Amino acid sequence: MVEAVRRGSSMREVARKFQVSRSHVQKWVKRAQGNSLGQVCWADRSRAPHHVANRTAPDLELAILECRKMLKETSALGFYGAEAIHESMSQICFPEQLPCVRTIDRILQRHGALDGGRRHRHQAPPSGWYLPEVALGRAELESFDIIEGLVIEGHGEVEVFTGKALWGPHVAAWPMPSVSAKVAQEKLLQHWRMHGLPSFAQFDNDTRFQGGHNHPDVVGRIVRICLSLGITPVFAPPHESGFQAVIEHFNGLWQQKVWDRFHHLNLAALEKRSSQFTEAYYRRLARQREAAPARRRFPTAWRANLQTEPMGQMIYLRRCDAKGEAFFLGQRFSIAPQFAFRLIRCEVHLDEQEIRIFRLRRREPTDQPLIKKIKYNRPRRGFRE
């Protein structure tokens, strides 16, 4: 187009020939003005202005950085942040020429002149990461908990025994006046007879699940039932977030969709609403989760015998104290001083009379080395009802 114009053709004629607007021809003619066609840069140019109208002048930015350096090295107070720079420069510059505190802060950030570092958030570990077979999806983990502090007007306090599977759609919520270890055992057996047995059952450190804390080496009713059915009981570390997230999320959902949503006249009405919710929620999860680890059938010939010596494996998730010791089974076990405040998984193998300690790290969820073995010979004692 430029060459045609230079030969003597009019811009209107050239625009008609190349089927473009006349302003388009004028643009390229102006671009090539005074240069040979081979020297002209024909690349598209940005339409952004060369200078931003509201951007701080470079010399003023340099003055801000110099002021920060001066305050850091010579200031008696030792303050050299955006507010201190603004206060110091306001004594030199006119207020209308000086950027605001927020702009000064952005200038410091743009030039990397901030001392504070941003918090680096690491990727969360996979679900069930502290149990390798569960994390790989080869075994099912079912968590159980108790919701306390609910009151039905005119009928007194209510507790809810809840359960939630990690991979499968199985959920449960049983409202009752109070949850005892014996009642929890009956509900667990009822649930497992209906849906099958998981590989792991996780609880908090409530005495109704774990057993009494008044004597060492106590194995409670729930633990004995799990061991006799070939289920490995897992106890979450006290005062740690994340390990009970699955069941705590379900507890919050149950309270939102059942307890807070309706006015319950009595316990029977609450049980009916809870049953409707858990059945509907089970069907919803069953549609969403196609694959889940297989659950074992409940043995038909099994009978509960709490006096049988417990055999199998128990798992305690713990965080060592300042001395590198961990508390479980009603006593303290010395792990190692270098593992102070570290997470560990304690596997109690009753058959082999041994405790195996594994290191746990959220940043490296697949690296769980064995760090110690402890001989453990549990005293034989009967179960007291």
Describe the structure.
By secondary structure, the protein is of the alpha/beta class. It folds into 3 domains: 2-39, no CATH class; 58-110; 126-385, 2-Layer Sandwich (Nucleotidyltransferase, domain 5). Helices cover 33% and strands 18% of the residues. It has 12 helices and 11 strands. It has helices at 2-6, 11-18, 22-31, 58-74, 82-89, 101-110, 132-135, 181-195, 207-210, 221-228, 245-259, 267-288, and strands at residues 141-152, 156-165, 171-176, 200-203, 232-235, 313-319, 325-328, 331-334, 343-349, 354-360, 370-375. The chain has a 9-stranded mixed sheet with strand order 3-2-1-4-5-6-9-10-11. It has a two-stranded antiparallel ribbon with strand order 7-8. Strand 7 (325-328) and strand 8 (331-334) form a beta hairpin. The longest helix has 22 residues, at 267-288. The model has no long low-confidence stretch (mean pLDDT 91).
